[in-house]
Amino acid sequence: MQTITTDSMTTALQDTQQSFLHIEGVSKVYPTSKGAYTVLQDVNLNIEAGEFICVIGHSGCGKSTLLNMVSGFSQPTEGVVLLQGQPITQPGPDRMVVFQNYSLLPWLTAFENVYLGLDSVYPEKSGAEKKAIARDNLEMVGLSDSLDKKPTQLSGGMKQRVAIARALATRPQVLILDEPFGALDAITKEELQEELLKIWNEHRCTVLMITHDIDEALFLSDRLVMMTNGPAANIGEIMTMPFPRPRDRDRIMEDPEYYRLRNYALDFLYNRFAHDDE
Amino acid sequence: MTATLPNRATVSSRDRIQALLKHPAANIALPIIGILLFLTIWEVLARIGLIALPSPIQVLTDERSNYLIMNPFFYNSDLDQGLFLQTMASLKRVAIGYGAAAIVGIAVGILVGNSPVIDKMFDPLFQFLRMVAPLAWVPIALAALRQNEPAALFVIFITSIWPILINTAVGVREIPQDYKNVAKVLRISNQKYFFKVLIPSALPYIFTGLRIAIGLAWLAIIAAEIVMSGVAGIGFFIWDAYQQNYVTEIIVAVVYIGAVGLVLDRLVLFIQKRIAPGQ
Predict the structure, then answer these.
(1) B230 CB contacts (<8 Å, ≥6 apart)?
(2) Could you report the per-residue pLDDT of B127-160, keeping only the tens digit for each?
């Protein structure tokens, strides 16, 4: 299994001993009342700075567990996760997370939600400077008109835009997105995907994104990490996207390669690693 | 045709009731009709002698109770004053006892809600003390404090603190994990976490506790004053009137008590709507 993983990675990545984000020999074991439960076993992954990585797999395959170890919410039972050579021990603003359910504070306006993050990350910056950054980031996601609206007054897509603005405002090195568009309708989802790509093109932070949507992964990512099923899940294969950037959805959809890769990923998920109850 | 007619009739009558309930006057007119109905039944029951209480009209016309109704502000001595002043004396005790309970209850509640260890340690004790009735605290308070006034304040405090404390603790414990995660990623300072996350998130729970507690505090002061003879207040007024068999006076005082209880509850609700709207 592991040889396949390394085979599909570019040789350049293999040669650099310490990549930007380095996941090595990571296992996660949870103690349960029925004994130890291994979620992930011996996961290895090297990610370069500025890469856009999507992670796909059936529920229970440990995608979230893997990302939680990058964001710092949990620690590997075995192995190490290194960011620029430093082990990750706790969550921090250099690895911002966008949660599926937005996680905005409902008593703060869109602006205040973004400002709160800036305020604690940049204590040395002046209030006016932080306010300008908050405004710029909300403008970037197209919410200039909704600065003073509370989350309850915003649609799901708008809430997720605020969450993205909050995450990007602090200029994180890594942006972690946990199924960010899962709860949105198809049209809003496509809009946000395109905006995320546009923003990422300008910022070029490293992105780690969990998704259930193969088309989303093909459109957005540089590499798609496909997980095997749990327990003791691992990286099954890594697919490298050949599509040049900046990407145009219509042009990609016309590319026969798109459908070859799409079918390959579908085959991986629904034939080779079909879920038990499917 | 004939089959549809009764159906249409019921639908339209239901529509008419809906329209009636939506009418702005319904909020005032319907409760008034309800109260008048209640008073009429009481009047009839008293007249035919089914209950020994004075009827509403007797309460209004009786010399002593009429004087009380017409003169809420007279003052002869601490124990002989108008019912508005008596009520104010009781309310002052509630304000002090309840205020202290709110401060201590919220503070300890936050502490308990934040620490699973302290929570496990004290929760059974709180649940146990919560069940002790206000009147049961009176002899303990008198034995411990030896004076009527501090004992009365203590009874209000100890009665109203538990719902505030327990609800605050639940509110803090139930802060959604999402908010905590956001705070962790952003490494928000403790002070910011307290004011921007913890307090706003727990506020609806805190107000639930405060609203239950204000009702209990008002119940407790009446009970406490009845037992502690010789203090000015609406509770002792009732006891005094009962001793002298002035039943009409008691009824007037009970109306005051109910009205004040209602106002207190609405007041806390009003503050809640101003501070924590829509939650």
Answers:
(1) B79, B148, B236
(2) 999 999 888 998 999 899 988 889 999 999 999 9
pLDDT digits (tens, 9 = 90+) for B69-95: 888 888 888 888 899 999 999 999 999
How far, in Å, are A42, A78, A237, B234 from residue A2 at the CA level?
9, 17, 9, 82
User: Which stretches of B75-133 are DSSP H helices?
Assistant: 83-114, 116-130
Gap between the Cα atoms of B197 and B182, Å rounded: 10
Contacts of B184 in chain A (CB under 8 A): 73, 90-91
Considering only CA atoms, which of B271, B237, B230 is closest in space to residue B256?
Answer: B237
- Put simply, whether A95 touches B (Cβ < 8 Å) is yes
Task: Give the DSSP per-residue string, A186-207.
Answer: HHHHHHHHHHHHHHHHHH--EE
- Nearest CB to A91: which of B179, B184, B196? B184
Q: Give chain B positions within 8 Å (CB) of A106.
A: 279
Report the gap between the CA of A103 and the closest CA in chain B (Å): 6
ipTM for the whole complex: 0.83
Give how far B251 is from chain A: nearest CA, Å: 46
Distance from the B205 Cα atom to the nearest Cα atom in chain A, whole angstroms: 15
